[in-house]
Amino acid sequence: MSTADTLVLAWHGTRNPAGHAVIASITDRVRTLLPGVTVHTAWVDAQTAGGAHDRHRVLPEALAAAGDCTLVPCFLAEGYHVTHDIPEAVAASPYTVQVAPHLDGVADGALVERVTEAGGPGDALVLAVVGSRRLRAQAEVARVASRLGRHFGVSAYVGDLFGSPSVTDQVEAARAAGASDVVVVPYTLAPGLWMNRVAGLGVRIAEPLGQHASIATAIAARHRAFLSLPAANLGR
Predict the structure, then answer these.
(1) Where in the chain is the domain with CATH 3.40.50.1400?
(2) pLDDT band for position 56 (50/70/90)?
(3) Where are the alpha helices (DSSP H) in 75-212?
(4) Which conformational region is residue 111 in: left (phi greater than 0), alpha (psi within -120 to 50 degrees), or beta?
(5) DSSP of 135-161, one letter per residue?
(6) CATH 3.90.950.10 fits domain 6-103+212-226
(7) CB-based contact 7:69 (threshold 8 Å)
(8) How far apart are CA 214 and CA 219, in angstroms?
(9) What is this structure's pTM?
(10) Which of 9, 44, 163, 199 falls between 20 and 30 A from 35, CA-CA?
(11) Confidence bin at 151 (pLDDT 50/70/90)
C-alpha cells in the first residue's frame, strides 16, 4: 500500500448509533469518489470507542493496519485533536503518513442549504459547535458564523454544545435582542449526544452536515490534493 492508494479518515468518534450510520454513509461516498483507494476509518477520541455499535479502530490501530497512507482529519476546526492527538499518533507510526488539512471552510454551502431546508434563517442563527479552548479553532468557527449571518442578512451567534456560552445562552441572547424566530444550525458532521441538549429549546434545528454530498466531496479532494506532493515521512 502507499500514500496514494490508502486513506485514513480520522473522526472524533461517537457512541451514538445514528452517528455511526452517518459516518459509514460518508465513508461509502468517499470510496465511490476514490475508486481504487482503500479507505479506513478511525476514532481519535478513544473514550468514545468500545460501544455496542462501535466497529471502528482507534487511530493508532488504524494507522498500523493501513501502513503508508494519507490521513484526512475529519474535523471542522483546529482543536486539540487536530493539533495534538493526530500528530502524536502519526509521529508514533513507523509508516509514511501524509496529513491533509482538516475540513475548515468546506461547509459554507452545506450550511446554507441546511438552513434553507429548515425553513430559512428566521430572525437569528445560532451556530452550534463542539467548542475548543484553542484560539485558532474559535476564530475559525467565528468566521463561519459571520459568513453565514452575512449570507442571510441576520445576526449569527456561536453557541457551545458542551461549554460556554452555551447554545441555550445564545438562543436567549438572540431573543433578548428581539429575535422571535431563532434557528440553531449544528456545525457538526454527525448526530451525537449533543442532540439532547438542543431538543427542548423551542427553536427550529437544522440537520447536521454529514449527509450533505459536499462533505464527502471535500474529503476526497483533500486526498487528491496530496497525490501531487512529495510524501513526508512523519512517522519515522
Answers:
(1) 6-103+212-226, 108-205
(2) low
(3) 80, 86-92, 108-117, 135-152, 167-176, 195-198
(4) alpha
(5) HHHHHHHHHHHHHHHHHHTSEEEEEES
(6) no
(7) yes
(8) 9
(9) 0.87
(10) 44
(11) very high
